[in-house]
């Protein structure tokens, strides 16, 4: 019985492999920014093409871009090979904000 408990502790209770540090300017942050920028722009442009007025289309774009970025990080919480990151969300929202600024200037 003691050997079984020792085996379980050694197999599952050991330290996990350390995750790489999550830097604010990490190599994947530009990808988060660009992806959110593109998703926001396409959603806003698509909503505008579907007949929504400028402000409503902008809200659709912002909502879609933010939802996709946050959903990606929530998805990463449940995967062993991925790490969720607050900094990734910050860069996603920066991309959404930049796309909203560009879209707000167009009519």
Structure write-up:
The protein has 107 residues and is mostly helical. The protein has one domain (26-105). The protein is built from four helices and no strands. Helix 3 runs antiparallel to helix 4. The protein is elongated. It starts with a helix and ends with a helix. Mean pLDDT is 86; it is low at 6-10.
Sheet with most strands = none
Number of strands: 0
Count of runs of 4 or more consecutive helical residues = 4
Query: What number is the mean pLDDT?
Result: 86
Helix/strand/pairing category: mainly alpha
Defining traits:
single chain, about 110 residues, mainly alpha, elongated
Q: Topology, pairings included?
A:
Blueprint: H1 2-12, H2 29-49, H3 54-77, H4 86-105
Helix pairs in contact: 2-3, 2-4, 3-4
Structure described in brief:
It is built from 4 helices and no strands. It is mostly helical. It has one domain (26-105).
């Amino acid at each position: 019985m003691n050997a079984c408990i020792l085996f379980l502790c050694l197999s599952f209770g050991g330290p996990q492999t350390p995750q790489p540090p999550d830097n604010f300017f990490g190599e994947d942050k530009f990808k988060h920014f660009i992806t959110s920028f593109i998703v926001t722009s396409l959603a806003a442009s698509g909503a505008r093409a579907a007949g929504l007025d400028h402000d409503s289309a902008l809200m659709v774009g912002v909502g879609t871009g933010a939802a996709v970025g946050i959903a990606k990080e929530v998805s990463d919480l449940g995967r062993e090979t991925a790490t969720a990151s607050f900094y990734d969300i910050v860069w996603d929202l920066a991309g959404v904000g930049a796309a909203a600024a560009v879209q707000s200037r167009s009519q």
